[in-house]
Write a structure and sequence with these properties.
VC0467-like; globular; 184 residues
């Protein structure tokens, strides 16, 4: 039986949290989606939740010396006991891409690519099949292509506001709303 809707993968896109998310790890988060399929759901990494630390602080002394200086982010609430690597690359196109490293050696190799910026992530974000689509229907997330200007912004909580401003005049107004609307 053929589905009545057409599925469109959002792999490679950014998810920007809407103000409907008021607390928790996803509050004002920006997620780079790395996988999205109708059957398996979606996965990605929060890219604006810098931990304030580097890999050397997340591993045993002397472990991963080539990667010790790489900044570490909270990637999401799934498998927070795992340290994962990924790179954001800006090539000649107008968009950036995200490539997860499957191994530590692959992460080391990514560091040698001049257009790559390597990051470490503690955990990742994940949705079961249909969950992200339900959240999008409820306007929980805004979807945006990862423009090459992405790496010109600081990858901290200010990224949320900066990317919203780039989406549209409406989103620019949303970006300027105070955190506590009732306190206004």
């Amino acid at each position: 039986m053929k589905s009545l809707h057409s599925f469109r993968s959002l792999a490679g896109q950014l998810l920007i949290a809407s103000p409907l998310i008021r607390d928790g790890i996803f509050y004002r988060s920006v997620i780079f989606l790395t996988e999205h399929s109708e059957e398996d759901g979606a996965q990605g990494f929060i890219i604006n939740s810098f931990s304030g630390r580097k890999v050397m602080h997340a591993v045993a002394a002397g472990e991963l010396p080539e990667l010790s200086h790489v900044p570490t982010f909270h990637g999401g609430p799934v498998k927070e006991d795992k340290l994962l690597f990924g790179s954001i690359t800006v090539e000649s196109s107008e968009f950036a891409s995200f490539t997860p490293a499957r191994t530590n050696q692959e992460a080391i190799t990514m560091m040698d690519h001049p257009q790559c910026q390597l990051f470490a992530y503690i955990g990742y974000s994940s949705w079961i099949a249909g969950q992200l689509e339900d959240e999008l229907t409820a306007n929980t997330w805004y979807v945006s292509p990862p423009r090459k200007s992405l790496l010109s912004h600081k990858l901290d909580r200010s990224l949320w506001r900066n990317l919203l401003r780039e989406l549209s005049p409406y989103h620019a107004i949303v970006a300027e709303c105070p955190e506590e609307l009732l306190a206004n």
